[in-house]
Amino acid sequence: MDIIKKAIDEGRSVLSEFEAKQVLSSYGIPITKYFLVENVSELDKAVGEVGFPLVMKGCSPEIAHKTEQGLIRLDIRSSEEARKAFAEIQKDMPGGKGAILVEEMIKGSRELVIGMTRDPQFGPCVMFGLGGIFTEILRDVVFRKAPLEKIDASEMMEDIKGHKILGSVRGMAEADREILADMLIRIGQIGLDQPNVKEIDANPVILDKQGRPVAVDALIVLNGKS
After folding, report:
1. CA atoms within 13 A on the CB side of 106
2. Pick from 69, 127, 129, 145: CA 20 to 30 A from residue 40's CA?
3. Could you tell me what percent of the chain has a pLDDT over 70?
C-alpha cells in the first residue's frame, strides 16, 4: 500500500491519523467523515461539507497524544468557532504549523476499541473490548488470531466482561453486531495483507444513536522496511 510504503521510505514508524483513516477506509471500515485542511480557505470548505457539530484535531505523525497537548476541539457549532479553533490548534502544533483534521462529531455514550497487534509467535491478532478511557483502566479486551470468521468475531463480543454494553441498555439501541463483526474481520485482514503494519488501534469506536459503530480515532504503528 502506497501510504505505508511512503511512510517507511521516510523513516517513520507511525502514520498520522489522516493516513491511518485512509488505510481503514480502504478496507471498508466505517470511520467519521473527515477532511485535512492547512489554511482557512480549506477550512471553510471542509466545514461546509461536514456540517455542525464537528471536531477539529491537530494532525501529524509526531503527535501521539492530541488530548494531552491541547490539540483537540469538540462540539464546534459555528464557522466562527471553527476559525478560532483552527488558529488555536495551529499555534500549539509543533513549530506553530501543521495540518488539521475536520471531522463530523459522532454522538454516542458507548465506546469500544478494535485493533490488531502482530504477535511474534501467532502473527496478526485482532483485539476487541471496551474503549475510550476504559481501555487502560478496565483492560476488558480479548484477542483472536487472524484470519477471523464471523463466528470468531461474534464470540469476541460475548467474551468481554462488559458485553452487555452491546445490548439495548437504558433506551439505547442495540449495537449493530453485523457491522462490528465485519470491522473485526477487516482489521484482521489488514494485518494479513500488510506485513509492515505492527499495530492498529481504532479507539474509540463509538456506537451512534442507531447502534452503528464508527471509528472516530485511529493509530497505526509500522515496522520493517518496504
Report:
1. 23
2. 69
3. 95
Q: Are strands 99-104 and 54-59 parallel, antiparallel or unpaired?
A: antiparallel
pLDDT at 171 over 70: yes
In degrees, to the nearest 5, what angle opens at C-alpha 15 toward C-alphas 11 and 16?
Answer: 125
Strand runs labelled E in 120-226: 123-130, 141-145, 197-207, 213-215, 219-222
| Cell digits of residue 165 | 454494553
> Is the C-alpha dihedral spanning 121, 190, 35, 10 positive or negative?
positive
Cell 456506537, located at residue: 207
Compute how many other C-beta atoms are within 10 angstroms of the C-beta atom of residue 101: 25
- C-alpha 15/C-alpha 35 separation (Å) is 16
Under CATH, to which class is 34-104 assigned? alpha beta
What would the pLDDT profile of 117-136 be if each residue is shown by its tens digit? 999 999 999 999 999 877 77
Peptide bond into 124 cis (omega under 30): no
Q: What is the DSSP string of 111-139?
A: EEEEEEEEETTTEEEEEEEE-TTHHHHH-
The CA-atom distances, in angstroms, between 131 and each of 47, 64, 114, 115 are: 28, 17, 8, 11
Annotated domain spans of the chain: 2-29+108-222, 34-104
Superfamily of domain 2-29+108-222: ATP-grasp fold, B domain (3.30.470.20)
